[in-house]
Design brief:
This protein has 276 residues and is an alpha/beta fold. 38% of the residues lie in helices and 13% in strands. InterPro entries: AKR (IPR020471), AKR5G (IPR044500), Aldo/ket_reductase_CS (IPR018170), NAD(P)_OxRdtase_dom_sf (IPR036812), NADP_OxRdtase_dom (IPR023210).
Length: 276
């Protein structure tokens, strides 16, 4: 059982990735994101997830420095945006991200979306970044099973992580099974379905039974499902509350009831049908 914020999943290359982290999507660069990152690290978070398109890598870098925690104790993720995909442009985008974060390496670098006709070339750039020791792990985001199969066919190195939309309304069973077989760690974005699940009666009932909030129950379900999770918040108290999920365990019955809420319903774009 995952017992603390510093507990880790082991990726297929042996790198340890915290089960729980802070997402900073829509956190404004500058004071807002700097405070969110330093509050999270102060609260014991080790993992921070950003992306070039969030336009807050500078602030994340400052937050890391201000936290006073040694760099090697943290796990920092960023991602290459769609317009920069391709071999040379990805290498360039990566250097740009490093510069903004003011880091010598990242722990995880991801392809943000499976841009048709581009992601294989982009992956070759990620393999180079990995071999050069500038990213401790590489992976993808928003890849469906068919994207992964296509990528793996020509890849030298298998993705270590696939970060996708995942919550009780979108359980991603087929994808989870495939990733498990391939030893690709699944990671959840929008685990709380952007707040849309917080008044769900089934979740509320389970929460009451455990004397927890609905959000805490969902996040606990993620981790017990073997899915790394990175809820986003910029409010210090919410950041602390989100992480308060290590002192209870959901029963088999609780887990099954939550699994039963699946409706294959997305709040974000469909990876098979996006145009950005």
């Amino acid at each position: 059982m995952t017992k603390s914020l510093s507990d880790t999943a082991v990726l297929h290359n042996g790198v340890e990735m915290p089960w729980f982290g802070l997402g900073v999507w829509q956190a404004e660069d500058g004071e807002e994101v700097v405070n969110a990152v330093s509050s999270a690290v102060k609260a014991g978070y080790k993992s921070i997830d950003t992306a070039a398109i969030y336009r807050n890598e500078d602030g994340v870098g400052i937050g890391i420095k201000q936290s006073g925690v040694p760099r090697e104790e943290l796990f920092i993720t960023t991602k290459v945006w769609n317009t920069e995909q391709g071999y040379e442009s990805t290498l360039q985008a990566f250097e740009e991200s490093l510069k903004k974060l003011d880091l010598e390496y990242v722990d995880l670098y991801l392809i943000h979306w499976p841009v048709a006709g581009k992601y294989k070339e982009t992956w070759k750039a990620l393999e180079k970044i990995y071999k050069d020791g500038k990213a401790r792990a590489i992976g993808v985001s928003n890849f469906q099973v068919h994207h992964l199969k296509d990528l793996i066919e020509d890849a030298e190195i298998k993705p270590m992580v696939n970060q996708v939309e995942f919550h009780p309304r979108l359980c991603q069973l087929e994808l989870r099974e495939y990733c498990k077989e391939q030893k690709i760690q699944l990671e959840a974005w929008s685990p709380l379905m952007q707040g849309k699940l917080l008044d769900n009666p089934v979740l509320a009932e389970i929460a009451e039974k455990h004397n927890k909030t609905t959000a805490q129950v969902i996040l606990r379900w993620d981790v017990q499902s073997g899915v790394v999770t990175i809820p986003k918040s910029v409010k210090e108290q919410r950041i602390i509350d989100n992480a308060d999920i290590f002192d209870f365990e959901l029963s088999q019955e609780d887990m099954e009831r939550i699994d039963g809420l699946n409706q294959d319903e997305r709040v974000g774009p469909d990876p098979d049908n996006f145009d950005f």
